[in-house]
Amino acid sequence: MNFDDILRDIKAGKFSPIYFLHGEEPYFIDRIEEAVDRHALSEGEKGFNQSVLYGKDVDHLTLLDYLRRYPMMSERQVVILREAQEMKGLGELTGYFEKPMPTTVFVVCHKHKKYDMRTKLGKVLASKALVFESKKLYDNQVPDWVTTYCRAKKRSIEMPAAELIAEYLGADLAKVANELDKLVLNLPAETTITVNHVQEYIGISKDYNVFELQRAFALRDLAKIARIQQYFAANIRKNPLIVTIASLHAYFTKVYMLHFLQTAGDAEMSKALDLRSDFFLKEYKLAARNYPLSHTEYILHVLREYDLRAKGVDTDTTNTGDEELMKEMFFKILHGASMPLAGQRVA
Which residues, at least 6 apart from 331, have a Cβ–Cβ distance to it below 8 Å? Predict the structure, then answer.
């Protein structure tokens, strides 16, 4: 079952005796646990019939004692095991999973990594439990997820606004959802969320963000690039160098791809670059004109070099701050192969 199907059944009062929730993305695991917490028992029933335990604090015998209890004045009890990845005796529960108590709803939250379903326990879970793998979204999937989340909140959002949120907040869905909830609270129900709303309520600078930086590079607007660089350097915690590098690498990778699509039509180009409108395609075409293929290849090398340096891989530059590295990187991007890479000299 997928995430939406599981939530739909829970809200309809259809519960599985075992929910085994595992994977790298904690957001979906938390939402399913919250749904069981909200719908499986009334507030009056929870005092006697709901137990929340933690994997690092509980052993399998104690947990089995909780699981095999009968509910008091209720048709079911709920046992939630958080941080199951920290429990040493998880495999000792195989016997229970093979024959669970029909009056117990057991929610296992195994976060931050996928459970090995090839194990004996994994094979039992696959046949006896509702198993849900919570997968991380790829960065390019986040804008569509933002749109879907807003739709569920009975709000619409413009795609550039969704892309700005994704670019600024990344794939941390809990953080993204929290910021979207703020937007929903501050805007009337009929309002379509725009870039201006995102900038105002989430606190993204209107003039100094990664989208504006990408556009400034596309236009070779030296003055604007300098202003953004100064703003980023002065606010480096909100604009980490590694995030800036990742954004520019994704951008110039598409510019690089476009050099090999010159004979394609606009629709084919947009599909190949995963673009959602002709507006963005025009900008990439402009960037491709301003940065020939050899220059674009050099830029990608520069970005890889500075990604390593920002992570401290280049031991000769460990004392160089992110602000100075950013300044150097921007200069090399603009001036092309006349500037040496690490370990190179200008001929």
Answer: 339
Residue type, 207: D
Phi, then psi, of 53 in degrees rounded to 5: -120, 160
Tokens of 195: 């870039």
| Cβ burial 166-190 (10 Å sphere, 16+ → b, else e) | bbbbebebeebbebbeebbeebeee
The candidate with the shortest Cα–Cα distance to 229, out of 219, 239, 242, is: 239
Query: Given pLDDT bands bounded at 50, 70 and 90, which one contains residue 168?
Result: confident
Nearest to 284 by CA among 273, 271, 268, 295: 273
CB 58 within 8 A of CB 146: no
Residue by residue, DSSP assigns 239-251 as S-HHHHHHHHHHH
pLDDT tens, residue by residue, 286-326: 999 999 999 999 999 999 999 999 988 764 555 678 999 99
Q: What is the C-alpha separation between 326 and 295, in angstroms, rounded?
A: 19
Neighbouring-strand partners of residue 23: 111, 113
Classified by CATH at the fold level, domain 3-133 comes out as Rossmann fold (3.40.50)
List the domain boundaries for the chain: 3-133, 139-202, 210-338
Write the CB contacts of 295 (distance below 8 Å, at least 6 apart in sequence).
336, 337
What residue type is assigned to position 196 of the chain? N
State the Cα–Cα distance between residues 131 and 134, nearest whole angstrom.
10
- Model confidence, pTM: 0.70
d(CA 54, CA 74): 24
Q: Which CATH number does 210-338 carry?
A: 1.20.272.10
Domain over 139-202 is classified CATH 1.10.8.60: yes
Q: Which helix (H) or strand (E) holds 313?
A: none
DSSP structure string for 249-301: HHHHHHHHHHTT-TTS-HHHHHHHTT-SSHHHHHHHHHHHHHS-HHHHHHHHH
Tokens, residue 28: 């979906």
CB 308 within 8 A of CB 314: yes
